[in-house]
Amino acid sequence: MQRSQSNKSTNEISENTLSHLYETAIVIKNGVEERNYKSVLFSSIDNREATIESAVHIGFLLTQLKKKVLLVNLDHLNTDCINEYLHTEQKASLISQLKNSAYISEAITRTQYDDLDAMDIEEIDEDEFATTVNQYDLKSKLQPLTNYYDLLMVVGPETKSFNYYANIYELSDSAITIVNSKNNDKYLLKKHIDKFKVFNIRSFGILRKDN
């Protein structure tokens, strides 16, 4: 799996990192099967690229574990990123479809990988994003997709710089937090993870990854 502009592939990821990604995929798979989790949030304090890369790779691994996955990118500062990783030609249209269509499924991009689809976000101002998500009820429009996919994997923006994370938290019932394996702000990390309890989100733990 390779991103067109970064030339990164699974062959270039260390065996140790691949092992952690696979172990995380297994944990998520078990959560889906044993606790009926329908959505998992991938987020970080300030590791945007590592977050989307981890989500894409784990999404692919889950398809190899017989799960049908939809990747939903909600990082408004990293637009079209899933489409770039998966080499799809369809432009991001999540916000447009949310505003203009009764069926957000029209924003779904079919990828070259069986059972792995994507929904990517266009460029949008942070305040407008929060207003749009509330006004057009993104949560309700995503809900029917859980009847078709085993798991929705929601990619959130960096928590350090995003002011409306409640709108992201309420979309997920479980979470993985991505941190730099060498440097991370432990105070902000604890603050972020503590909020999972407020929104009744089950934390699957922390995935440490080199940037």
Write the layout of secondary structure elements.
Blueprint: H1 15-35, E1 39-44, H2 48-64, E2 69-73, H3 81-85, H4 94-100, E3 108-110, E4 116-119, H5 126-135, H6 138-142, E5 151-155, H7 166-169, E6 174-180, H8 186-198, E7 202-209
Helix pairs in contact: 1-2
Provide an overview of this structure.
39% of the residues lie in helices and 18% in strands. It contains 8 helices and 7 strands; from the N terminus they run αβαβααββααβαβαβ. A 7-stranded mixed sheet has the order 3-4-2-5-1-6-7, with helices on both faces. The longest helix has 21 residues, at 15-35. The radius of gyration is 16 Å and the shape is globular.
How many E-type strands? 7
User: What fold name goes in the CATH topology slot?
Assistant: Rossmann fold
Helix coverage percent of residues? 25-40%
Low-confidence parts lasting 5 or more residues at pLDDT below 50? 2-11
With helices defined by DSSP (H or I, 4 residues minimum), what is the helix count? 8
Main beta-sheet annotation: 7 strands, mixed
Number of domains: 1
- Strand arrangement, largest sheet? 3-4-2-5-1-6-7
Distance between the termini: 17 Å
Mean pLDDT, all residues: 87
